[in-house]
Amino acid sequence: MRIALVRQRVGFGLGGAENYVAQFAQELQRQGHEVTIIADYCDLSGVKFKRAPVLGRGSIAKNLSFFFMVRRILKQESFDLVYSCARTAPCDLLRISDPLHAAWLELGYRFGTPRIRALRPRHRTLLWLEKQSIQQARLGLVTNSQLVKRQVRTYYGVPEEKIFVLYNGVDFSRFNLSWRQKRKRWRKELSLSGKKVLLFVGHDWRRKGLDLVQKILPRLPYETLLLVAGGPALRARQGIRFLGRVRQVEKLYAASDLLVLPTRYDPFSNVVLEALACGLPVVTSPLNGASEIIRPGETGFVVENEPESLLRAVSGMLVRLPRAETCHRSVAHLSWERHVREWLKLVS
Fold it and tell me: Which residues constitute the domain of residue 137?
């Protein structure tokens, strides 16, 4: 098939959704399909690329210009199937990659009511784009969790039979237990000997809940160090190291004792999959779609994103950590090959 994949930016190391499209494109091509990326920026070799330039400054101009540029390209080109991973239309299948904005208006803002916030120009624009993309998805929607499926039904009334839940895949050639075999080496390299180590991975610190992890850190029963991967590389504070962008996050998964991600909203955090694949247990919140793959007590815990619940879960996990093999086996079935195979069933 000739398949178009749509996302504003595509490439490894750019973000979860950007990584997804890059990995998905490579696996589709490996299985013999002709793939074209429609994006403003594509850092992926060996794949056809049609540029849909983002124009102007600010969220409104950038999102609207990309929407209409993609629309123009789709009128000019012919594809067997269009798979959009962004707020664009029309398409055959739409993947809800980003936080559903209608839900985030309720979950993510401290002041004002969702109805009042929705009147602001930026929110009105994103809600309009979200509605257009959902309504113009011919075959239906792909969500990466039951959480997002419920939200799409609640906010947009999409029939259940038009929403397909398909968990993300993980690159086992990169994320695996071999990193764990060099755990002592990585811990020595990072000067972690004798410490319990928590890991937080993410750029959007407020949405991902870094402030909640910082609140519980002084109250933990062990000498505990928090490694923060993603965001700016700030000066270290007592008990916290801000690493900035990390190229080989696999080392951190192997060197740490626990991934802590008390996110306020994540459709499906890929770092949860990656950590488990590397043998690292996870504590996260029920507002993370990836919490659906955690086996409570065996590979981690799912707790409300507030300090007391988080403190109890993290303290309990540090007392008795699960075996790395147990964590890895819990996600061993979530390969990219399986993901693409299941996706192709939806469009065949």
Answer: 2-170+334-347
